[in-house]
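Query form — protein TrbM protein

QUESTION: What is the three-dimensional structure of this chain?
INPUT:
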Amino acid sequence: MKKYLTITVLMLLLAAPVQAKDSCSTVLCMAGMLQGVGVVSECTGSVQDYFDIIMFNGHGGISLNKTFKARGKFLGKCTSAGNWPKMINSQYGRQLGF
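ANSWER: The structure tokens for TrbM protein are given below.
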């Protein structure tokens, strides 16, 4: 009985919906960083979503160019952000952390 309960709980946890990363929240939070405000506590997750985007080359090493492009593509999904995504990515696109 205990085994079936554990399996059921695991299945429910694994079936939980995954929250999509919100590029507009990331743009908003990182625009504040770009203006010198720093990372506000409510923005930690949104900023981390951006810095979690890391691309690798064919040999397993980090590719800063591919990372830059992937991060720019993510920010570009926020179509109402004007020029902010390009400015943010120019500043932080090749950085590995904040």
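ADDITIONAL NOTE: Confidence is low (pLDDT under 50) at residues 8-19.
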